[in-house]
């Protein structure tokens, strides 16, 4: 077994608080396309309506032309429908124990972490399967409104509904960012960056903070990223098989 795998396995075995930051590379192993791919951008980067997909899936368009936004949100939902958790999701979900707490901060909107059994999941970009009212606290699953011809309306206040995801031009949810900051303040014994290009500050900053604290950083990603040079251990590999090897090493197995 690779010496780096053995070392990370030993650190994982001793760790009491572990953070995973996950991105599209994890969902890709469940055959879920990237955000760009799922919106079916056409020639010149335009959708079939002649609008850039970033514009169609923006907060401004949702307010100004909700029918257009819902059309492509539905297409995005179709790309994740029926997909199931993969080895990466299941491996992370199996790591918590009475001695070890695991947190997952994910950029993915497909809730596959929760479906695999993970509990402490911070959805940085929201959840496409959850629909919320734009005015009140009403919330429901996507399936409740699937197939309706009219734009969905809140049954309680008649305001417009929307998927609980972060659209282009919108800010990340403050409550989730606050919870993420609170957990970082408590500190972690080990940080994993898995399947993310690490282009956003809310991914880069936790890695920088871990380095300042002396917390080991592990990156799993086929391609190099802006935080690769900060990682104590880097594995240029797919998430699922590599996490399985690391978990096996943590359990003292050579499988």
Which helices and strands appear, and what pairs or packs with what?
Blueprint lengths: L2 H12 L2 E6 L1 H5 L6 H4 L14 H4 L2 H6 L1 H15 L6 H8 L6 E6 L5 H5 L4 E3 L2 E8 L5 E3 L19 E5 L8 H13 L3 E5 L6 H13 L3 E4 L12 E3 L3 H12 L5
Parallel strand pairs: 1-2, 1-7, 2-3, 7-8, 8-9
Antiparallel strand pairs: 4-5, 4-6
Helix pairs in contact: 1-11, 7-11
At a glance:
The chain has 255 residues and is of the alpha/beta class.
Total number of helices? 11
According to CATH, the fold-level topology of the largest domain is Rossmann fold
Architecture of the largest domain in CATH? 3-Layer(aba) Sandwich
Which CATH C-level class of the largest domain is it? Alpha Beta
Q: Write the H/E string, N to C.
A: HEHHHHHHEHEEEEHEHEEH
Gap between N and C termini, in Å?
Answer: 9 Å
